[in-house]
């Protein structure tokens, strides 16, 4: 199959540090290449891939100091895709709704994975207007705010099986990986660690949008002797960081669409203590791959029960549900469905024209 993967340009593919969407695009692209599909990746020029790379900007925009308007580069990228769209059997976008006006009448099968939060009121008119655009969710809970969207299915993220190896949790600390932001629950993670009197290591980035929150609400908490702020870590560092942890804390307070860090921890055999919100009940098997809780108090209690969990079972559940090969195969199933729907639609349209000579004649005059 000739497949185009269109990634956001904010990070390289794969990202050098933090980056969820671009990392998923990388794992999917490389797995499809491994399965001998003909894949083209539209991404920043500092990306590394086994696919053909078409770049619309030299480097990822988040770390590009002189980038003021990232949208400009994404518009260039959309035109790059349109210019060679005829080369592909399907276009797979990971750029939210940006391409909808460009691809609505393109005549090529397309599908879009929605990676972000969808409970924003401003999105309603978009998905009311573009109801026919085929979209894919990354969890079933993600779909709830947009029942009118043309959902083709849900595909959970996946990691290469050999990316992380199981650890033994002998580091004696709890781990937090992600962003310093209110919705990720960093303050709650710190409270859980201090209450349980267990060290917490934080590997996280601070976006400019969250800088004020960090300075006002979090920075002073990092001075506690049980808390260690490690900054951003790369993919290789995550194996030891999470594998040596007693558990990963995931005390979110928003409807997380997926939560990549949960399956990264599972790949390391590390159980997850997560608040019951968003995708969490779909990803974590309560009392098997971790504990699903509803408060700081319940999280502290769950820490005392970690010895009841088998780290090998945590890893086993990862291998059953969240590998890159499983993710790619699920996407391929949807690709085939979208292509078949597209071909059926074209055939139906052609038959209608044959049955209505006036329409055919009118079309001829226009041409």
Automatic annotation (TrEMBL):
Coiled-coil residues: none
User: What Gene3D superfamilies does the annotation carry?
Assistant: Glycogen Phosphorylase B
Residue ranges of every copy of the Glycosyl transferase family domain listed in the record: 170-310
Domain Glycosyltransferase subfamily 4-like N-terminal stretches:
18-132
Pfam families the UniProt entry points to: Glyco_transf_4, Glycos_transf_1
What the entry lists under InterPro entries is as follows: Glyco_trans_1, Glyco_trans_4-like_N, Glycosyltransferase_grp1
Please give the name of this protein. Answer: Glycosyltransferase family 4 protein
Its lineage opens with: Bacteria, Pseudomonadati, Bacteroidota, Sphingobacteriia, Sphingobacteriales
